[in-house]
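Appendix B.2, paired examples.
Example (i):
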Amino acid sequence: APRVAKHCEPGRFVIVKMDDLGERIPLTICDYDREAGTITIVVQIVGASTEKMSHLKAGDAFEDFVGPLGCPSELISKDIEQLKKMNIVFIAGTAPVYPQVKWMHEHGVDVDVIVGAKNKELIILEEEMKAVAGNLYITTDDGSYVRKGMGTDVLKDLVAEGKHYDLCVAIGPMIMMKFVCLLTKELGIPTIVSMNPIMVDGTGMCGACRLKVGDEIKFACVDGPEFDGHLVDF
C-alpha cells in the first residue's frame, strides 16, 4: 500500500474490507515502511471477516484498503525538546501504541508503556516494544504472565512508588479507557484516549461514531480518533 505508507503518521488508521459481503473494519496502522511502501496491521480473530483475514497468503488482497484516515497523534506535532522533559505513560495493547512509542524513541523521547492482555497468549510484539519503550510493564488479567491485574493496577502501583507522569495515553477497549480516565482524573494526570472502537464508516458520513467531548459533539473518525479522555462522555 505505497500511497498509505507514504502519507501515514502515528495515530492514524485504515479501513479494510475483505470482500463484497464483509464489514468495514477500522485498524490502527501498527507500523510502516515508506521505502518498501508497506504498512503493518495487527488483527485478532473475533468474527467472520477477521477469520477470513487469517487465511490470507502472500499475494492475496483485500477488496478495499482505505487510508490513512483520522488525525495523527497530537504528540508528533509537539516540540521535541518539550516532549523530552515530560514523563509520559502509555496504557494499551501493543499494536495500537507501538507506532507512537517507536516514533518517540526515534526522536529521543523515552516513555513508559503498560501493556495489558487477558492472558499470555495475547501478548504480542513484546521484544519490539521493549526495544523502543523506556520501561515496559506487562500485566495479564489471569496472571498467566508477569503479573495479575489490569493496566490501572500497574499505574496505581507506579504512582504509589513515587513515579510522576505529566501525560497518559490510553488506547484499548472502551471500558478499559473509561476506567483509566477515572483513575487518572483522580491522580491529576491529563489523559488522551483513542476512540477507534466506535467507528464504522471511517469517513464522517454515517455518524455512528458521534460522541460528546466536553460541550461539543465530535465524530471519532474525522475529528479524532484521539481526544481528551477527561472530557469524553463514556
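Example (ii):
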Amino acid sequence: VRTPVPLARPRWTYIILAINIIVFLAMTVVGLQSGVGGAVVSGTGRMTPILIDFGANLAPLVASGQYWRLITANFLHIGVLHLLVNSCTLYILGRQVEALFGQPRFVAIYLLSGIAGAVLSYMLTQGLSAGASTSLFGLFGALVVYFYKHRRLFGQLGQQQLVSLGVTL
C-alpha cells in the first residue's frame, strides 16, 4: 500500500524565503539611496516608483506587454510587516506543502497560484499589487485539499488539521 505522505525535505521554501528577503533588502537600499526612505516604509505611497521598478503588478504596464510582472510581483513586499507576515506564513505552510507534495509540485503550486492571483488582480483592478499572498493561499488550498482527501487515513489528526486550517482561514 502506497502512503500519501512522501515527506520530501523542504528546500524551495527556504530558497523562496531568501529571494523575498534579498529583494526586500535591495528595495530598501534603492529606497535609501533615492531618498525615499527604503522599503521599510509601510504602504505604497512613497514606495510606488521603487515597487514599479522592481516589477510590481500594475495593470497598464502589464497591458503594454510587461507580462513578467505577473511573476515578479509575487516576490515583492510593501513594508516590513507585509514581508514578516508572508515570510512566517510561507515558513509554516511551505515546509508542510513541500514535504507532502514534493519539491516540483510545491514550486508549481506556489508559482501557479501566485501567477493566477496576479492575473486576477490585473483583470479586476488598475492599482498596484505586490506580495506573495496569492501564492500562500494556493499553499493553504493545497493543504486543505490534501487533508480532506486523506482525512480517513489520518483519522483524528487529519480532522484536527482541517479544523486548524479552517480557523486559520
